[in-house]
Amino acid sequence: MRGFALSLLVLSVAPATLCAQKLRLRLEAIGITYQEVREGRDGFGGGGGVGAELRLGRFHVVASAYNAHVEPDDTTATEFDVRQVDLRIGYALTPFFSLEAGGGRRYIEPDLAAQEVGLFRAGVFSENQLNRLASVWVRGAYLLGPQFSGGGSADLAFEFGLGVGIGTANGRIRFHAEYEFQRIDRRVGNDEVPLQVSLARTGIAVGF
Amino acid sequence: MRVLPSLLVMALWAGPPMAAQQHPDVAAARQAYQSLDYRLAIAAARRALAQPRLSAEDRATAYELLAFTYGALDSTTQAVDAFRELIFIDPDREPDPRAISPRITALYANALGQVLVVRRIEADTVSFVAGQGEIPIMFDVTRRPARVTARAVGNGFDAVIATDTVVDRGHITWTATDQLGAPVPAGRYRILIEAAVGPDQYTSQVVLDLQHGTVDTLPHVSSLEGYTLQNEYEQPGRNWKPLGLAALYTALASGASLALENTNLANPPRREIGGVSLAVLVTGFVMSLQRPDSVPVPANILYNQLFRERLADENAEIAAQNARRRRQVMLTIVPVNEPQ
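^ inputs. structure came back:
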């Protein structure tokens, strides 16, 4: 919880000092499908999130956080909140192709209702302008050394993303929709306890 | 025998034009000459010339009448002497060969060959930038070869502007600048042309009014002849590239996520990928229906850049030229008819 609060604080303070740069602040609605191996922990939910994007030359930094309330399919199971912060730093090799690295942290409330996860990521990002108003992007990353509150490890963990943005030509206002898919093949001892998250976010961003 | 030439002269020459205020003796001489009363004409002309306050015009007319009368009387020596005096007084005054007997004009030519004068001085109005031009002055010298020295005098300026040996027709120029190349002050100047042959000397002059002015500056240019700015952007035709890109990205991401779903988990409803994929495809479709953005034309941009650089160079050159011109002085020199 403390980390999550700190992340939100960073996101709220950073724009004040960096607004002279090419900065975009996002506010978004979240839809999430959360799955663990046990059926009782499959669930759907929604919530809200914030984010910030900063572009400096070939570099871009994307920080985002969301909070979603998940209701398990099993009505006897405990409902829980998923809070996640992500940070991605990218470097553009070409106008359409970037390398990305970063990390993320997922918090669960109440504790033990689902797995809390901490991870690093390394991947690629590709964004293409459809015209002056719209762009689409995809990203994919391998998740490095994910850590779980319940222990265990994951040999295979990756994520994909797809997004579209459309807004004014000057970039001041931009609407976006984004899909994220995350699969972590968690193993505890000899038991396979995989995690899988499908996330949709849609919102508005204000550029500076 | 002597009457015939006189009649011939009378037939060919109506005499000098009557001045508005002619001296009475000069008028009497003219009247007597026209009445073929040569004795009276000579007496009246002599009487006029004895007047100390006789004007130069009347004096010239009196000598002219005297020369014609002596010529009519076949008194060659006196006629030539009278013509010599006439030439000294007014070197440019000469009998009209179309109206005067050849014998008279021959006498005039004889007199002209005996005296040294500078005559038929010609100078035209000119304008030039100080230091970059000159006024030409042409003249005749009656004896040759003559050593000619020309001086410009006026407004505190006095300098020899030319020395030359002249045969018949002389030509000098004046730049209207001092020794340092600076323009002389505005005002009236006399160009004194002194001719010398042996001990004989004669000085004539031309009077010039010199005015200072500013040199016109050049306007800056905003276009170059034969060159026009090109459109730096062009509107491409409508295409389906946005939809194609959207479909490609959607297929890539959704295909990967669907293919790589964990089969150990229950089948997810996939509403997230479905919704976002739909949004991406719709956006691509709508963007394809829009007119494409204008795209830059590199060749035209380069052309325009070179054009503007050339224009800037031209204007910089004009600005530098104008700066020089503002420091220059335009001289206008106008010859003035002033009695010598």
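Chain B is about 45% helix and 25% strand. Chain B has three domains: 3-114, 118-211+331-336, 233-322.
thumbs up if we can close this ticket
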